[in-house]
Amino acid sequence: MSFQNSDKIEQLKQATPARIGIGRAGTRPTSRELLKLRCDHAAAVDSVYGSVSSGLLAELGLFTVESGAADQELYLKRPDLGRLLPEHSIQLLAERCAPSPQVQIVVSDGLSAGAVEHNLRDIYPALLDSLQVLGLSAGTPFFIRNGRVGIMNAIGDLLRPETVVLLIGERPGLVTSRSLSAYLCYRPRAGMTDSDRMVISNIHQGGTPPVEAGAYIGSLIARMLEQKKSGVGLLL
Fold it and tell me: Taking the model in full, what pTM does it have?
């Protein structure tokens, strides 16, 4: 199939992974594109309902706690529960985590376990290296199953860190199901909102490379500590 201004179409296709200029067969998409669409959709579903392997968590020294959403169905239907820490998780964190750390690193599957599986081995060591170079210390890292971004507030209330870094799987789409986000907040507490947080999104091999993101997070934390703030009030 031919397009008018085909050179413009090619420029757009080179600039974005979005489905543009894919052609059609009559009134329908081509078989190739339809099958690719179904494949990408299946990958997104698998990532939402998948789980992070215990082997990966053990390899990186992360122990596991749960959010208030006890299972995946409840997590999807009740986002508010993913922002809460149940009593047994509170007790475990109080027992195992160093109190009042300078940087508290937390990992969560969020809406994409696949994002954690594919990126954590690269971004986590890079983040630790960045903190070390900058002379910053990290507390006891851990993994939260079925966590939401707002659970940073509950962690802040419990452990009283200066900063929290939450590495969490993004909602998967039809371009990639492996995208990770890093949320950062200075002294998170109950009542804080998204405007109080920083976010680095689209972390994967086709977006912001995980190693590069890990290094940048360290420098951003240093700036947050220097200015004693995060979110819209932080001067970049």
Answer: 0.85
